[in-house]
Amino acid sequence: MIRLKDVEKYYSNKFVKTWVLRNIDMEVKEGDFVTIMGPSGAGKSTLLHILGMLDDMSGGEYYFLDEPVHQLNERKRTGFHQQYIGFVFQAYHLIDELTVYENLETPLLYKKVKTSERKSLIAETLDRFNIVAKKDLFPNQLSGGQQQLVAVARALIINPKLILADEPTGNLNSKQGLEIMDMLKALNDEGTTIIQVTHDEKKAAYGDRIIHLLDGYIDKIDERN
Amino acid sequence: MFINYLKIALRNIARNKIISFINISGLTIGLVCFFMIALYVYDELTYDRFFKDSDRIYRIVHENIEEGGAATLLTTPGPLAPVLNKDFPQVEKAVRIWQNLDLVVKNSNQIQYYAQDKHIYADPGLFNVFHIPFLFGNPETALKSPNGVIITDKIARLFFKTENVVGKVLVINKEDYEVTGVIRSLSHHTHLPQFEFITSIEPVEERYHFNSWLQGVGVYTYVKLAMNVNVETFQSRILDIADQYVEDELDNRGMTQKYFLQPITDIHLHPNYVKESGIHSKTAGLVLFSAIAFLVLFIASINFINSSLSLAFFRIKEISIRKTNGANRTQLVSQFVTESIVISVIAVCLALVFIYLLTPWFNEIIGKELNHSTLPVSSVLFFMSGVVLCVGFFTGIFPALLIFSFRPAQAIKGIPLTNININNQGIQRLSLRKILVIVQFVITSVFIVALLVIFQQINYMKNKDLGFEKEQILVFPVQTVEMCRSVKDNLDRVKQEFTRHHTVQSITTHLRSPGRMTHQNDVFVYRDGEKRKYWINMQFLDSDFLQTYKIPILAGADFTKNNMTQYILNEAASREFGFHTPDQAIGNHMSIFDWDGEIVGVTKNFHFWSLHYSIEPMVFIRTDHFFPEAVSLKLNTKDLRETMTFIENTFKALFPDQPFEYYFLDEDFNRLYKADVRFAFIILLFTGTAIFIACLGLFGLSLLTIQRKIKEIGIRKVLGSSIPGIIYMLIKEYSLWMITASVISWPIAWYVMRKWLLNFAYRIDIELWMFVLAGAMTLVIALLTVTWQAVRAATANPVEALRYE
Ligand SMILES: Nc1ncnc2c1ncn2[C@@H]1O[C@H](COP(=O)(O)OP(=O)(O)O)[C@@H](O)[C@H]1O
Ligand SMILES: [Mg+2]
Prior knowledge:
Chain A is of the alpha/beta class and 225 residues long. Chain A has a single domain (2-223), classed as P-loop containing nucleotide triphosphate hydrolases (Rossmann fold, 3-Layer(aba) Sandwich), CATH 3.40.50.300.
């Protein structure tokens, strides 16, 4: 599903190039649950953003479902988001001005899902995540765990093939964090590909492969079965 | 404490450079407009006030009621002033003034000066009523001698190269006059004519019937009342003053005369005494301009309020920390108000500099000599402080109130700023901003519609077919009595000489050319053995007039080439006289004074005056008795220079002593729209300013709101929104605002402009496209302003916005 070949990323200001990612080669198959670990500043988020096509890479090749992403234009990439990718962030990133219901609705609107179908999808999701009662609340009226729940729900509502989760449980207490992890695991069991970033060994264990990043290089890969 | 406020204020202004720039420049421009208009309005309201005791000086006008109608005249019979001086102790001095139209002045050095409207005749009491300082000579005696003349310093320098010229001699209209006084040129800030020469009125008393209550054109009469005279009582005393002296004669003629006092300070705004109504009258114009001034300042203040409100969102944390450190409400409000006042003060100072620099230019546009030095310093200072305090207070108080609606803990807990609840209380402030922006654009949009209507109307007036050809007509006014004689006595030769050149197609003599004031008089029409009297516009002319001006004849024929008195009517006159068809009029007789003649033709109606007025009945009279006031030449030339050389040479040969002055009829006619064009230009100026300020504000607002939305934009992109989708989302709201503003503005604009159009007898219809175009313009301008921000935000990398929190 995903193939990276010699991907690199640097930021350049006037004189110096700051390398953030170098020589990244990796492959992710459909249904994988991959964990990325590494110290702060290692480039984990950057890698996730590149995988999610939110950020451009400075060099290398990226194939997503055999399409060369590095050659695609903006519109095509936007198409991939809408179709296949769901994001979950550490800081939840819900839209403050919208209610829970409207937050869930947003990706569907961008995907131009018909009204009736949209309504039933949202109802279904609210139900599944047990947040029906919260649907008319604004994000800041929710606890952190509830907000992250909504963020996960929003990522899932388009039924993505790939979920990218950047420290999804970082701001949550351990009970809430485990709930979210169980949720991801369940999704993975249903066939959704998941790539997560985490610092927590226990949560890393949910994945079947751990990629260790260090200063922008892949330090080692732990396969576990 | 105040120093601390000030320090923080200055630091904040420096930190938010763009917003501070927008606030200060918007407010500055608004203030410049405001003060310019204030200056103009003040100037208009204070005409003639520079005369000493101006509140005691009145012009006396009178109403003459006769069988056949009443007329309000700005003059009075000549004997009024003398009897007021003699029999009324309430009157400190009454004086008569008469204006001599044509003037030729020479001196021994052969310097010549021709002028119209520069010479007045007056009683010696002139200087008791109007305090006009003398540079040289004695005001008590200067007008006592019939051959004394008072001149201005300008004229003194022109003829004698020096100012102290008392005792020198000038030849005025062929008579010798001795200079008895030199005064400074009169200020333009008066309704009085800009005279350069004053001579005694006595020598012309007979000629103009100034000694009769009943005859003649009358004379301007001014009185200065004694101190502490009750004006109302005095007014009632003079209302029927003529009856007290000549009741029997008035009764015999079936005449009644009523006299009224008009304060001279009123004359500029009500030059015709009648208090005009409608938007075009001078007072209505002033009200309109004042309204515009306030609106522009209002738009600028809205910017200020809006950006302070928006900035406040970014300062919630700062304020919360201050609160937890013990700041009370008053202290917080003081902080905000200090900031606003600092900005207002900067704007006022800048505005003063700009006003100083721009006044000459503004004077040119409005045709005035505005001068800040005429303004009372105390009221300017008072006003300035008022503006600073009002603007400062209101722009400071709104954000302060906004801040109070947040709990400090919320901001301090480290919840990201954008997560603070603005949905409940905040939403109302947001809609306050929205309403303010909409109000701004309602005003702007009204301006745009007004501008479109005004330009259409002017265009319409300038291009409408007047019913005669105004192009390629050159007119010389006949300025002097000599020239008048010369034209009249040698008419055939004059015509031959000019038409010798092939480009001069025809030539005609007449009274005033179209577009200028006409004469009116009683005429008698004989019909079915009855004699009827009509008061009507008349034009004396020779038999080439209709052909020169290409005025089509509806019935009958043009004048025949003989010497008989003949009449031609326009269609309106034919109807006025009760003829059912133009043909019925032909062959009837009529007379003016006692010059009897036949009606030989009826012309199609044409516009003798600007399209402000409807076509009035008019009679054309061809008679040998008239003295031409102007000569019109119809040209057909491509080489105007060559033709002009010929005309000038011919003119000089025919009238060796006369000044060669001329005008082109089309230009002269279009001058009738000068006030409208000026009005349009001023509206254009303020519309431009209003648009600019409003856009500046919108720009600032979009900058701030879009900045606040950076995170949302990032999320939306991550969720799959395309760049155009984001841009659309950002500008959709603004489009809605603009459309709302336009729609609200339409009825207002329609109402105001319909009123304005009522000033014109011939006017365009206000059409839908004007509103639509104005709406489209508002929308486009506004969207151009915000789109830049939107594009920038939408194309930014979402990762940047989302990475660190
Ligand atoms: N816009 C940028 N310009 C320069 N350096 C950046 C920029 N964004 C991120 N970096 C750097 O890239 C490195 C990797 O960042 P990130 O991927 O967020 O690390 P992680 O998520 O592993 O903590 C960091 O050292 C960070 O300072
Ligand atoms: Mg990170």
